[in-house]
From TrEMBL:
Gene3D superfamilies: alpha/beta hydrolase (3.40.50.1820). This is Alpha/beta-hydrolase. One of its GO terms (biological process) is lipid catabolic process. It comes from Linnemannia elongata AG-77. It comes from the Eukaryota.
Length: 316
């Protein structure tokens, strides 16, 4: 689930400020030259080279279809974004860092409507799971691998479980980590029962469904989730590492992000970021850029690393 990261008023102020900067000269009592608008400035070649080098460094090996797994890192990573996001935007922090750590890393953008740019994860999750199945098969073929690691955020912690349970993903996924996880849906601060009590749930759903079939699937007690969680919320043979935050503003209550099977399945574990670091205040969106979450997942993928993740791991 992915909402606007910036207040519209703040965004508008930023646009107005940028416009004023480009349209007005830099204040100076003794200007040495006329002001040149940004759109007309000519930058030295060295600046372009420096920028390109920084860009390549930040995304080295990320989404590289020529990547081949190594003996030490035999499983490529497939990143699965959240509702309303897309593969590149959601994983601009995690993707390059896992690539620099030696993994073949790939992102999928799924559930996208042709007439809605940038926003994805909107189609019903059964269809998106089929897209994921095809994508994973391509990754396995291209990297000459037998199983992948999954990393999901928000809807990406939910939709792939349909792939695991119904579309054969159980035999193609070794480990599955998630941040901002939603296992039993969100009550949205009890908005769902409130709308139901007013008789507005179904009318609003009819309006939203043409634009976002998955939106109501992520809600607590949705038919999709009841079916998905029936008989257990994990599948045998796959290791799970689900991370939640007490300050998640979109998954309410945050405990709905827990895998109940973790109580009996030794391959499943629930992690609360505040148990790793009491000072952590990550919310739903900020977990996408959390060094703490990154290091926790990296240790989950590589058990030879130090497993004692703490506040010091919040800095990289």
């Amino acid at each position: 689930m992915h909402l606007f990261k910036t207040s519209p008023l703040v965004a508008l102020a930023a646009v107005l400020l940028a416009s004023s900067i480009q349209a007005s000269p830099v204040p100076s009592s003794n200007p040495v030259s006329e002001y040149v608008p940004l759109s007309e400035r000519i930058f030295p070649e060295a600046d372009y080279i420096k920028h390109e080098a920084l860009h390549k460094r930040s995304s080295a090996g990320y989404n590289d279809w020529g990547c081949r797994v190594s003996a030490k890192k035999p499983n490529p990573i497939v990143f699965v974004h959240g509702l309303g996001s897309n593969g590149l935007e959601n994983w601009q922090y995690f993707g390059p860092r896992f690539a620099l750590a030696g993994y073949c890393t790939f992102t999928i953008t799924y559930g996208q409507y042709k007439n809605i740019p940038l926003l994805a994860g909107l189609d019903k999750m059964e269809n998106s799971a089929a897209e994921l199945s095809t994508f994973v098969d391509r990754v396995l073929t291209q990297t000459n691998s037998t199983k992948v690691f999954l990393v999901g955020h928000s809807e990406g912690s939910m939709m792939p479980r349909y792939y695991l349970k119904y579309l054969g993903g159980q035999t193609k996924v070794a480990k599955y980590a998630a941040i901002g996880s939603i296992v039993y849906g969100s009550s949205l601060y009890n908005l769902v029962p409130f709308l139901t009590g007013l008789g507005l749930y179904d009318p609003i759903k009819k309006i939203v469904d043409p634009l976002c079939l998955s939106c109501f699937q992520v809600l607590q007690d949705s038919p999709f989730l009841k079916d998905l969680n029936e008989g257990g919320d994990t599948v045998p043979g796959v290791e799970y590492h689900y991370i939640v935050s007490k300050y998640d503003e979109l998954v309410t209550p945050y405990t709905n992000g827990f895998l109940k099977d973790a109580a009996t399945n030794p391959l499943a574990e629930n992690i609360v970021t505040q148990s790793l670091c009491p000072l952590n205040v990550d919310g739903h969106i900020s977990q996408m850029f959390s060094p703490l979450a990154f290091n926790s997942i990296r240790a989950f993928f590589d058990r030879s690393l130090n497993q004692n993740i703490n506040c010091l791991d919040s800095v990289w």
